[in-house]
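Quarterly update, task 2.4: S-adenosyl-L-homocysteine-bound model.
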Amino acid sequence: MNAQLQTPSACPIAPPSTQEPLIGKSLEELRSLVKDMGEPAFRADQLHQWLYVHCVRNFDDMSNLKKSFRDKLAETHQVGSLSIAEKQVSQDGTTKYLFRLPDGKVVESVLMYFEERGTYALCLSTQVGCAVNCGFCATGKLGFMRNLSVAEIVEQYVYAQADSGKEVRNIVFMGQGEPMLNYDTVLQAIHILNKSAEVGMRHITISTSGIVPRIYDLAKEDMQLTLAISLHAPDNATREAIMPLNKKWPLEELMPALHHYVSTTGKRLTIEYILLAGVNDQPGHAHDLGKLLQGLKCNVNLIPYNPIGDAYGYKRPSGNAIHRFKDIVTAYGKKVTVRVERGVDIAAACGQLANKVQPV
Ligand code: SAH
Ligand code: SF4
């Protein structure tokens, strides 16, 4: 099967409007809305079910709500505010959604199927573009445009679940943007995804490039989610060359924050390490990484570089170099996995998300 591109007309969507979206609201917020409209409280529970259990996209489908209530709601609200600008299905079954936001900007979400576990995971975006500007990342090349709202983050999940008809029980915040630079909004979205959409906290992962103060903040939240750190280099010189943010938060600040996080939460971290041929993939880097991580409760996930264009000069290491790196770090007592790329043929793999469709 070849990669497939679906046009927006194939997708059951309402046109964007400026009315406030209901998706993204908690049960408490829906209760207060319903109360203000003079309706009984149980209407909020019904509405909540339609939004987060049945994932319907328009008021007409909310069949147990009386027509007068639906009409009144529709005067001031819409169900959701995203529409699908483009949908691509990869040869490996990965689906990339390009969502159009109410202001015409676009962001991507990626739905992946993991055969060995029989589960689906959705990779969500938290910002349009990203200010962190890592040298190997297509989103970084866009620059920062704006933060997403709680509604826009939650709706990526609700929409992808409704459109795919799949039960998506795992969420990774590894799409466009740096979640820790939209911190309060991302935490509120996680709260809704957990309480309303019933995605288990243990099935949610936030990935960060290392915004040190927010790692201390997250440690206080007492949440059972997984924190993944994009470390990518075992020394400041190598890290700074590929991640400019290392100037602001070098390893001597990042590493104590990680130890603090583990000792406060008891949770095991995931350390992400992109492998760039000749840049950070040599045996010396692997030994330095093994030493740097000694005493830190973590697993290591190696991410062979996904190409974003020859102009940037990075290359994916050979299979041998990847396995050599893995074996060395494993010898330091770490569990090391190599991330399997998903949807490379539709530019849906890690770091490849860059909004090929321009805003209208
Ligand atoms: N901003 C967050 C989350 C989004 S990026 C972060 O940086 O952690 C998700 C993961 O993809 C990060 O580990 C990131 O470093 C990695 N990544 C970025 N560009 C990549 C590329 N071209 N190939 C492989 N992984 C990449
Ligand atoms: Fe931003 Fe993450 Fe890409 Fe870096 S890797 S530019 S932090 S999205």
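Highlight for this quarter: The pocket of S-adenosyl-L-homocysteine (ligand 1) is lined by residues 134, 136-137, 174, 178, 207-209, 230, 272, 274, 303, 305-306, 308, 350-351 (CB under 6 Å).
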